[in-house]
Amino acid sequence: MKLLHTSDWHIGRTFHGADLLAEQEAVLGHLSDLVVAESVDVVLVSGDIYDRAVPSAEAVRVATTALGRIRQAGAKLVMTPGNHDSAPRLGAFAEFAAAGGLHLRATIDGLAEPVLLTDEHGEVALYGIPYLEPEPARHALGVPEARGHTGVLTEAMRRIREDLAGRPPGTRSVVLAHAFVTGGEPTESERTIAVGGVEQVPGSVFDGVDYVALGHLHGPQTLAEHLRYSGSPLAYSFSETRQRKSVWLVELGADGLAEVRRHELPVPRQLAMLRGELAELLSDPEHDGLTEHFLSFTVTDRVRPIDAMRKLRERFPYAVHMDWQPEGGHDGAALKYAEAVRGRSDVEITRSFLKDCRGSAPSESEERLVLAALGAAGREREV
Fold first, then answer.
1. CB-CB neighbours of 101 under 10 Å
2. Cα separation of 92 and 106, whole Å?
3. CA 135, CA 222: separation in Å to the nearest integer?
4. Cβ contacts of residue 37 below 8 Å, gap of 6+?
5. How far apart are CA 344 and CA 349, in angstroms?
6. Which of 50, 115, 266, 359 is the most exposed place for a label (fewest CB within 10 A)?
7. pLDDT digits over 120-172, tens only?
8. What is the tens place of the pLDDT at every residue in 191-247?
């Protein structure tokens, strides 16, 4: 049996305010082509199908289109909700959807009830663990003594192993889970799931099954041969600029896990980060090939340029982020606030603040405005 492991679609997410639905539809459409090319039997989606609990109508359209194309390509689907999804909404009409080959595992009560499929070697049991918020999940699971993500996932896996032990010998097993497993590398685009400061769970929690399809972390990574994150199909932060987004193609043989291959996904719109003075960024011909990229700029002019983002977007339509870091404007020395202001007047503090932030002291006209503002503030305090 051949499986395709993907996760963290986050349909409906924006990128620094830019709509991503077209890019998401394009990359998810590739999955159905891959199902045909690789003769995939089952597509696993390990949580965060949507970016919010109540997705927009357009996000739902993109999701249903992608799922419909995968099903038409010949693969069944097994999906679980992540921490961004609403489990009740995602799991609505699950029994009806299963009749059409879409298996939704969205309830705690059903996490030890596998989707059972067969191939020439016998049965494969696919278990879906919905994202478990520790506090409500420990009560729903009947283990009020459980603590944090490790406690509730330990109980979930105990139930799964118990069910698996009662099945015919040789039954192969797959688990979908949405969690932060120790050893995984996060990016800047995941929403924290920390509870009491502890969000990570040891990989040993998932021992005893043939393959674990993890979701939550957005970079593709291998924690063990049978324990992997597929990552998100698109980059959702500039910290992911160097990542090559992908899915895992997993093959189960007669004795369990036979092979895992990585398949890189197409990139509908690439990311890049540029640094320099505004005039250089607007004129350098070396940047001509980046006009269709999502771009993050660090502008280094000693004086903050006026209307810099508008000017950048005239040349780069997909400029989505800009930071101003004047060269030489800050020496990096860390001072406590009390030390920085001790023995200094309000005017001196303001003058130093401006120089530290933008690399130049206030001009005469600016200083007059500062004095006027401070004077007005003093009069208000007196009143």
1. 15
2. 9
3. 29
4. none
5. 6
6. 266
7. 999 999 999 999 999 999 999 999 999 999 999 999 999 999 999 999 999 99
8. 887 654 458 999 999 999 999 999 999 999 999 999 999 999 999 999 999 999 999
**298, two tokens:** 């660090």
Strand, helix or coil for residue 323: strand
Q: CA nearest 137: which of 109, 99, 173, 116?
A: 109
Burial (0-12, 13-18, 19+ Cβ within 10 Å), 210: buried
What is the rounded CA–CA span in Å between residue 265 and residue 276? 31
CB contact set of 238 (below 8 Å; sequence gap of 6+): 188, 271, 273, 296, 321
Location of structure tokens 């070697």: 121
The answer to whether 322 touches 296, Cβ cutoff 8 Å, is: yes
Q: Which two tokens stand for residue 161?
A: 């192993």
Give the DSSP H/E element, type plus range, for residue 346: helix 346-358
Distance CA 289, CA 366 (A): 40
